[in-house]
Amino acid sequence: MLEQSIARDVLDAALATGGDFAEIFLEDRRNNTLILQDNRLEMVNSGRIHGAGIRVYTGLNAVYAYTNDTSREGLLRCAGQAASAVKQQRRSPVQAAPFVLANHPNVHVIQQAPSQTAARKKADILRAANAAAREAGGEIAQVVCNYKDSEQDVLICNSDGLFVTDRRTYTRFGCQVVASNGSENQSAYEGPGGMVGFELFETRIDPEAYGRKAAKTAITMLNAPQCPGGVMPVVIDNGFGGVIFHEACGHSLEATSVAFGLSEFSGKLGQQIAAPCVTAVDDGTLPNEWGSENVDDEGTPTTKLVLIENGILKNYMIDRLNGKRMGMAPTGSARRESYAFAPTSRMRNTYIAPGNDNNEEIISSMGDGLYAAKMGGGSVNPETGEFNFAVNEGYLVRGGKIVSPVRGASLIGRGSEILTKIDRVGRDMTMAQGMCGSLSGSVPTNVGEPMIRVSSITVGGRA
Predict the structure, then answer these.
(1) Of the candidates 181, 387, 372, the residue with the CA atom closest to the CA atom of residue 264
(2) Closest listed residue to residue 109, CA positions, set 153, 167, 191
């Protein structure tokens, strides 16, 4: 992708005005998208993202410039623009160290490259899911199915001598279903995917089953009464239930906020921040998972990082620059949407680890409360940990028995409080796929957990 001699010249140009460290991130990505709506294929789109970003440190400050001209002249021009913003004066600039080619094993084996798969086969996946969703009944008003794949080659090199390449292949399917009774609408969405090729549909998922599942949820919520509000125990199911840890706690453990003291968990390493039954992990090494990589976007090998162990805070997610601010080593957690973004610490595959409790007992012993079968989107303030999340699929529990679906529920609280109130953790953990937005753009992340129970939390409702 880039000759080492050119890369060395570009790094030296970036350091010419006194920078301490320079880095190049070069990307070449091919994307394909198909969308089926109203029973017909509405979009077949292919695109390419190509460019490079150059970052220069001076002390604890960083300058970032990017370009889609990756010729030698274009990269030198971009490096000069970054260097021009550096004010550090030295008699002799730092020189980039000789490169040492890093060879990291690729644990994400691709069996069927999306680029070698006919568009017809991709469209057939959407047609099958669409038909299955519409078979759910006359209340189905709209079905939108989409297919996306991406093949990304990256090269990362820096003035410390790092020179590494990586290939990342992603494939994902989505199905959004709207159910209507003429006066009200309810929607449901399923979006499985992975760092895999087209074999996703042969080895992992059944698109028709996901279409039926989305349709069933939409119809169930359309006919459900409004959820009552109040403080009550809540059981959160696995898979998408993990979004509550991701948002309410995960972002507060990223160095992006911790390094500046803007997290409720800043300075709390080694302290009890959760119930003893809670162990939470952020793992970028899981083969072929949606949030995995071989190396992060600074070229650091990804890791399995235990964030919380038996309730004790063990680690933060750290990128290189914020690691310098914190005096701590990077954890392979630096990520970015594309070459147009400087990297920062981000989550990868983040989950609460399996516990020892039985799912049936978790519900049967809860008394009156809410069973959140599927979580939706929400918002969080990393500094205070305050959050508000929608429950996309919920059920009222009375006397330890599920009695009725309910809609319009939301969960309101603070991350540090909810962690201490988890009193049950189930045995079976599953993950769900999503896109996480932050300072360095939108990146693929997995969220996951077994079934968990929160002894008391504020439930927002309309009944």
Answers:
(1) 387
(2) 167
Task: State both tokens at 427.
Answer: 């045995």
* DSSP alpha helix (H) spans, 391-434: 415-420
Pairing outcome for strands 140-158 and 100-101: unpaired
What's the whole-model pTM score? 0.94
pLDDT tens, position by position, 201-235: 999 999 999 999 999 999 999 999 999 999 999 99
Q: What is the largest CA-CA distance in the chain?
A: 77
Strand partners, 357: 426
- Are 21 and 158 in contact by the 8 Å Cβ rule? The answer is yes
> What contacts 394, CB < 8 A, 6 or more positions away?
224, 227, 370, 371, 372, 373, 405, 406, 407, 409
| Nearest CA-CA partner of 387 in 232, 238, 244 | 244
Query: pLDDT, tens digit, for every residue of 25-34?
Result: 999 999 999 9
Q: Where are the beta strands (DSSP E) in 295-429?
A: 304-309, 312-313, 334-335, 344-345, 349-352, 369-380, 386-398, 401-406, 410-414, 422-425
Nearest to 349 by CA among 300, 307, 310, 395: 307
